[in-house]
Amino acid sequence: MPDSRPLRPGEVESIGEYRLVGLLGEGGQGTVYLGETPSGVPVAVKVLHARLVADAGARTRFLREVELARRVAEFCTARVLDADVTHDRPYIVSEFVRGESLEELVRREGPRDRGALDRLAVGTAAALAAIHRAGIVHRDLKPSNVLLGPDGPRVIDFGIARMVDVAATLASEVQGTPSYMSPEQLEGWRPGPASDVFGWAVLMTFAATGRPAFGNDSIPAVMNRIMSREPDLDGVPERLRELLATCLAKDPRQRPTSDQVLYALMESDAEGLRAYGSGEPGDTLETTASPPPEPGTREGLTSVAGLEEGGARPATGTRDDLPPATGPVVDVTRAARPTRVRVVIAGVSLLLAAAVVVVPVVLLGQERDTPSAPRPAPVAVLAVGPRFGAPLGGPFTGHTADVLAVATATVDGRAVTVSAGRDSVVRVSEPGSRERAGRSFKVGTSYVSSLTAGEVGGRAVVVCGGLGEGLGGGLWVWDLARGAMLGRPFRGHRGDVLSVVLTELDGRSVVVSGGHGGLLVSDAATGKEVDSPLRGKDGEVTSLARAELDGRPVIVAAGAGDAVRVWDPADGRLVAGPYANGGAPITALTVGSVGGRPVILHGGDATVRVRDLRTGAPVGKPWTGHTDRVAALAVTELDGSPAVVSGSWDRTVRVWDLATGSPLGAPLTGSTGWVTSVAVTRVGDRPVVVAGGNDRAVRAWSLDPRR
Predict the structure, then answer these.
(1) pTM > 0.85: yes or no
(2) Out of 118, 140, 320, 523, which one is annotated catalytic?
(3) Residue 88 burial by CB count (10 A; 0-12/13-18/19+): exposed, middle or buried?
(4) Per the CB 3.0–4.6 Å rule, which of 4, 30, 112, 625 could disulfide with 116?
């Protein structure tokens, strides 16, 4: 755990009977302070957002869960000492223990191996089993929630698990960190103990390899892999690989319990592991035939046996309620575990750390300026006045789940924002307005992960792509003015459609779409696939942009494999690239122009990088300022000069002078969740940026540069 910083003048200095002496961290659930009891004992005080407890019934339920949390065995967690949700600022107090998080350690020293990895596996599994035996589900197991102290690993932040669940129930909002969430969490089910087992296996994959089992790039890409693809366990030691693979089963009924995981890790049978079961040698975990419920049903399900004795049954509406699935006996006799492991688990304490909702970021090496690609002189020096960055009206809150994509268009002479996401509904609003400005389109997909807007045959259209029914990719084109779909949905992708662009090919409007099967081209008016040499190019494509090079259109594509390529859509020729990004996946991509030279802008960590489109040479140094992953980029003009807008998981939007790389004005704030997408437009004579995020809102800010 990092040292606390001193409190600044004006910050709260006490809460309840606890004196606050420093700030430990801040996150999506609250702020964590270093505090002291009246007798001077150091404690961690987490001051929670008031929205987490919305009514008296919720407060009563949470206090009951705090009592359960106090019963968790202290050999692997520390007690929750106190909690008060009747206070005007709800808070929880826990024992304070110093220790570096697993995330920090792996980023600094690299993956764990040999005995260190085995001790981590046993220690965290033991903590998870103890938490489950107390009738608690953690719900957000991730590397930043594991502290590594001198006496062993400690799982933290389980004390607020039920409070987060109460808030999620009230707000119908998925809570958790995408890379570590289970399939049932992504489907909207309340997570049960099996979800924690899934998260534990992803966490151990990160500890062993330095990356989560389903990647760490864009939210839609990670979600799609969790739902439909096998985990990437390359690099996990053989002794653990099969165990982790079993814990990562898509169906929660096919996963072992946390007790069974711990037993598997501790077993020292020289002939290998016995099957999971009650914990007795030779016992197996069997499944019997019974069909799962229809997708979307959450009620009328019966509890399934398998929770530890004394633990709480999952509440109706969790995926752990499902009857056993049809399938073979789960045989994990070859599942790896340390041979002849002798582990002593020392007394372990729990620290309630800041639950910053973050997906780990692969650090990039330093990138140097290339002498052969000097920075062009700026066309003009941008300056902004007091109107710049002012919020435009109120947020549009028509969505019922995370907003994953936004686009802007002009319909009947007025600017509109088009937004979509996890609720599978494309909604139209006016920038800065709380009201809808047109028809909503229900899309036949699990969620919409990508949008673009443009014209087809003189009509304003929006193109949306996502994960379709049956886990196949879908692509839809809608006439914004008439509210009618053009042609039929395009179903050519095998998985999620992660990015879409409109362009022209042989005189007709086409959609170039990218996803897990690479690039595909379809006719925008009919939805039929176009026979194109781009088909299947570039592997897994996460980001696309359209540009021009030497007077002809080109497609700029980036994938999970950390490289940018430039393709000619007419003949499928690679005209530039690949340009490597130092190992980090590229999660945001756009194109612009500096002094007449086309450039690519991309983000994959907390920086924005610029490179020459033709040569790939870096243009200047990376732009710094964001404190978390850059998830979205857009290019616009301010007073005739090019500017770039970036949205980040740090909840801010920033604006940059493209010619100089200098930030313009202060960060645009107001979002209460990750910013997942940005777009630019004009309202009257004012340039405007709109942004969507996982707080289910679409916000707008003025970019008027006038003084």
Answers:
(1) no
(2) 140
(3) exposed
(4) 112
